[in-house]
Amino acid sequence: MSDPSITWRDSRTDPVRDEFVARGVTPDLDDILSRFPRASGESAFDPDLIASSVRRLETVLKVDTGHPFLDLSVKTGLTHIDATFQGNHPKYGIKVYAHEMHDSFPPTIIAAVDALSAWGLHSRAIQLWTYWLTHFVRDDGTIDYYGPSISEYGQLLDVAASLEERAGSDGWWQTCFPSLNRMAGYLLRLCAERGDELIAGSPEADERVKVRRYFHNNAWVVKGLRRWADVCERLGERVDPAPLREAADALARDTLAAIRLAWNTDDWWLTPQVEPLGRPESWTATRDASYTNYRYLPELLSSGLLPPEMANRVVESRLNAGGQFCGMTRFSDHLDDWPLTDYLRGLWALGRREDFLLSLYGHVAYHQTEGHLTAYEQVSFPPGREVAAYCLPSQLVAARAARLLV
């Protein structure tokens, strides 16, 4: 019998989405769960302990998405935060991802604080947030990590604003403000030094040596500075919001102009950077293409910088050039969903509910393992197997995105 994953890897479109579109129906989680063999493999932690934690979990906002399996995925993700962290000290995951070098990876704290505060678990969110900011932000505002992306600075400032909106400022603002303000100052310095060019920097840890002018990095600097200006002004902090907004507005104009210049054809290929980059045959044909598909363009979407016509172009490119399978993100010859929340938020903002549901349902059905629901960082096509070890941001996709449904 031929291996269907070979055909799936060669496909330019998502076969599951194609069927839903042809039938004119909204994706259904029970339907999706019945389509393929579920992923299997070892659990990251003792399944009985996780199940017990799920039963004891009490969220302020009731987890009621309309489907018990999605509810269970949300609760399982939330319980994995304390299972993964060592007290208040962060860990990205297990196995190789438990090594100390990964502890300060910004997406871990971003995902954890966002998920906890989304469901009203503010006390725990504040504990983890305060620990991270007081331990991993240097005096010059840079992050004590081997390969932070420029986008992650903006995302951390965005988390600060979201946490204040959800939980208020008591119990954390005074302690965390100095670290956050140093990061904002670092971004302002980058804006001042850029001249007429976009900010150049690392796009993400694995590709940290490729220092270029990436669109997602610049877009998130814009959002981070704007959000920081808003929260400081709201709290009456002695921070002049005008320079923050002026720098953000100028960078927003220049970034959009650069994107329009780079995307000046109707081709599916949407380069992630100012510098010339060879055109691949699909979103999984080269390393640069895979990273663009799974992280750079989703982060550009979630920044909110793109106008709707450009944001929809990103989605259509993913859908028609081999960017996803059953809503999950394709990377090389497998699936990699840990940054999927950025793509989901982009879809939600565009009002693309059917595509949002397909990606969320595909993730919980086939990027989580059957039974214990461990979410590996990377999995193979169905029947899914671990390609890269469990990591917390992948486990928290459901908890973060499903909050939009409640």
Description of the structure:
The protein is mostly helical and about 400 residues long. It has two domains: about 1-95 and about 285-405, no CATH class; about 105-260, no CATH class. It is built from 17 helices and five strands. A five-stranded antiparallel beta sheet has the order 1-2-3-4-5. Helix 6 packs parallel to helix 8, helix 8 runs antiparallel to helix 9 and helix 9 packs across helix 11 (about 240-260). The longest helix is centred in the middle third of the chain and has 22 residues, at about 240-260. The protein starts with a helix and ends in a 5-residue tail after the last helix.
Could you name the key traits of this structure?
single chain; 406 residues; 54% helix; globular
Secondary structure tally: strands: 5
Tell the overall outline.
Answer: globular
Gap from first CA to last CA = 43 Å
Domain tally = 2
Provide the succession of SSEs: HHHHHHHHHHHHHEEEHHEEHH
**Share of residues in strands:** under 5%
Percent range of helical residues: 40-55%
Taking Cα atoms only, what radius of gyration do you get, to the nearest Å? 20 Å
**Cross-sheet strand order for the largest sheet:** 1-2-3-4-5
Number of helices: 17
Structural class: mainly alpha
Main sheet summary: 5 strands, antiparallel
Mean pLDDT, all residues? 97
Low-confidence segments:
none
List the helices and strands and how they pair.
Elements: H1 4-10, H2 15-23, H3 29-33, H4 47-56, H5 68-84, H6 106-118, H7 122-136, H8 150-167, H9 173-193, H10 215-234, H11 241-262, H12 287-302, H13 308-320, E1 324-325, E2 328-331, E3 334-336, H14 340-349, H15 353-366, E4 376-379, E5 386-390, H16 392-395, H17 397-401
Antiparallel strand pairs: 1-2, 2-3, 3-4, 4-5
Helix pairs in contact: 4-5, 6-7, 6-8, 7-9, 8-9, 8-10, 9-10, 9-11, 10-11, 10-12, 12-14, 14-15
